[in-house]
């Protein structure tokens, strides 16, 4: 690269194109023509799969068409939906997607046709204009807030390199383009997805915080692209000479594939560790430079920003069916009136009545045409049958319900300072109708707070009894034990350099809970503050009590190694059991991605001052000099460092090819560091903190530190550990194979400083590691170790511990070089890279030597057993889907009361790999089970009684794969739904989602999925309601969920209380809406006016009756009504069954309400009719009391249906009544000749002076509501009796069970 720096800009531009041609052709000039033809053939498919990024500075003076980056999105973001010009048409277009809005607009426009109009056209428009305006104003306000946010983001500043000024200049974010060079500074937010090319960090690392993307507050590290790693001066954009080929924009935050082509034709692979994502924050790095790869809406953060999810609730789907029935009723009534009008006109024959309406041409209309016109007129008159305000009212009520759920302090978690989050506003009522719950285990039912419990090394088990007693103290409430659990000393001050987590932390506090168990709230506060600075670092996790026997062996091993150092004895003389012990703890220490930080010795952000010294140190390490010597200058002031990608593969190959000088025995050990005084690492001077990406890694590193094997620093090419008696050893890091859910293991390849051997250390799940151990014919000792370790693994799993196996492998230089060559080819591939890398890792991680295994406890969250028991009493079926080992999952299931010791357990494990045998076994063993009790798939499964047996089903992932096959899924589901509990172990994320989808689609039941990690996202999205736990594994599950909870135990109140209330309120409100709008008084008047469409009620009252006069009380009731108190709902979970069976909204209830409305309209019409019969009152003097009586009847009807009365209920009813009379008095006083020949003048004033009006206001509502009041009381009495019987019966049944 130093030679490249000597070229001029012009030569760089020319050589840049030549280098690109050489890289893409790889042929001599004589083959250029053939290669060109070949490239043209491949060009089109390649453009569909990859993106090519050039540096923009090469095209500053070029026209827009010549810039190859011109087709990529700019960095200006626009999350608004509207512009000034497009708002009105676009918003109306969106609102007209609702059929109801289209219907009401059609009715309003129909009223403008003179031959069919029923009301004043302008007045008929008022309701629909009001509804559309309210919705439009709401949408406009939301869009304006998005616009303001966009403007703030787009006008943030960043430094972009300008070729004209030859320096970095400030530009707005919206001016950044793909291909621009950007300089990033500490604590600065990334404006786009940037490929890291340079860093001021001595190790060429850049520390970032990704809390805005995944919620994880622990620091991540990104590394400079390999080819720029050894740059010996500041990065100069003018000397950049590469072209980047990468994948198309996508929303996968954990993947980035591509390569960079240099002038020489060499290709270097690009990884996710080289990419800085938009929205992340630079931490602990003074300066970094990168090139923009994705900008604006093509960045991964924007592609993941899907906004709130929209789902249609079950209740809404049922409501839409009944809206359709209202349309049918409307058409039937209109048809009846049209036929009646035609017959009435037909009886006159040739003698037309004087009030007959002529056609537009002035001629008489035939009875048939009159009937047709009247049919359209009656659609306008009876439009109130379709509740225009129902949809808007439901939205308002749901927003209010969500607000009150947020205000519930019982759903607030003090430790994490987090409330419940509602991300889907339109399915709150579904919370009251759940039937199946699918839950993750780790982090959802458990704390995901991993605590080291015990281990086995070389076939010998170390129980760590003292450590078990220490953990037991955290569960005691005795404040006298507080000193045993608290850490001495005051809270260290967080230096400004490492204050990357000073913002409010979303992750839950690891230590507050444990300290609260032992007493002092001040201590809990202190622990909470400490845990906010370092993830997974509560005293319960850190302060491991070592096993005395194992500690003695570690000290014995260290003393022997110390003795061998002075006597120059070979390492082979070290006993095998002691060698395995030291290797075991070395693996625990270095096989991870833990970030090391020291608060009292923060990282110094200095630029490289002596490149030669660093190069000489690297050369000394590469030449095979003692790597256990003093730590190099590059790590002397490390405060936060970890490895996220491996050193350059090509440089590693070069080092392997170099001649290694013979190493004498004296080189097996390095000199004692000057800072070493024979004591262990002094934690009091500056306690090391470990920031891990997973709690498992932190638990193992803290466990190793308890045995004085401490991780003290990392470099991209070495890991430094401190061992007792040996001081600090630097392991040369050759390669890292990170953990993934497919392999379920992680490996590091290092050059051992004591033996100079290339060693592979691997840790992972026992199911993954045990299959990779050397064959059993490798020696009796290894066979014995494997056998004993497997027994101990089974014991650990039976105790509910998470198990990990530790293994190693020795490679020759030739073996590693051969593997690395193939691995490099896999890394640089774009197509099929994952498969190639998996195969490459498998070749390395075979024939391993087993060292031992660990057992880590994942503690249950508070209240989980009680919550599961309560949810079960509520009739909910709970399935746990976990990736853990079967024995571990079963033990946790017993602990959390998912499985009962008295239950019989069906365990399904497929020993045969043949799918046919598995299918045969399913059909033969479970023939009595049927998925559909009525033997008819078409029958509604959730309404048909089904017997759940006292059985528990446990199935592993391999068997589940067979069970989800099309030929077996019905039989599997029949078995599973017959069991009281289902536990799926070793299940993949895809299997989780498939199980949820199978149950939801086959059984037609309401499903809820709850989880806390990225592996639960697919399950959460498939379920009817998805709940995310804001836990240790980031915010992926929360971002994909409909509701987010701090803890699992809050699910009980969310479902049993708020779910029940939301469902009950909305169901009753919808039924009330249908009833209220069905009180059609005008229909009965048609029998007295020849079905002419005339109305005895003023059109102002008709238009605004449902929209204004009777709208407010039902909103208050729909928001605040409580049929049962929260305490009763939690004490009697059986009441939740009402929502599961849709007891509040049955189809017959709709028809009962319509019949009741039919009866009440009869009473409200005919009692005033007979009261004013043979009188001389005008039409409106008779029609206005009918309107008043209907309003009173409807309001009293609502009062009968209201279960909980508050001052707001009384106020809303008083307000509606006062509003009606105020409008009536003002209107009747100010409109003497508004609509001739009608005259509403002074009508209400005269009625208020008439005693008969007051008598009607008492008699009519009582007569209209007496049947409903009687039926409601009878049903309530019967319901109380049945409810009491059911509760007693349930308690007797539970006691018997």
From TrEMBL:
GO molecular function, one term: glycosylceramide flippase activity
BP terms from Gene Ontology: phospholipid translocation
Residues annotated as the enzyme's active site: 440
Keyword Nucleotide-binding recorded: yes
Skewed-composition ranges (Basic and acidic residues): 655-666
Chief location of this protein within or outside the cell: endoplasmic reticulum
Protein family: Belongs to the cation transport ATPase (P-type) (TC 3.A.3) family. Type IV subfamily.
Record field: compositional bias (Basic residues): 35-46
UniProt-listed PANTHER family: PHOSPHOLIPID-TRANSPORTING ATPASE VA (PTHR24092:SF81), PROBABLE PHOSPHOLIPID-TRANSPORTING ATPASE (PTHR24092)
Documented EC number(s): 7.6.2.1
Sequence segments annotated as region (Disordered): 27-50, 478-527, 625-671
Subcellular localization: Endoplasmic reticulum membrane; Membrane
Domain P-type ATPase C-terminal residue range list: 1038-1271
Membrane-spanning parts: 321-348, 368-392, 1069-1088, 1100-1120, 1150-1173, 1179-1198, 1210-1230, 1252-1276
Domain P-type ATPase N-terminal: 65-122
Record keywords, A-Z: ATP-binding, Endoplasmic reticulum, Magnesium, Membrane, Metal-binding, Nucleotide-binding, Translocase, Transmembrane, Transmembrane helix
Bilayer disposition of the protein: Multi-pass membrane protein
Underlying gene: atp10a
Residues that coordinate or bind ATP: 440-442, 697, 739, 763, 802, 882-884, 986, 992, 1015-1016
Binding-site residues for Mg(2+), renumbered to this chain: 440, 442, 1012, 1016
Name of the protein this chain belongs to: Phospholipid-transporting ATPase
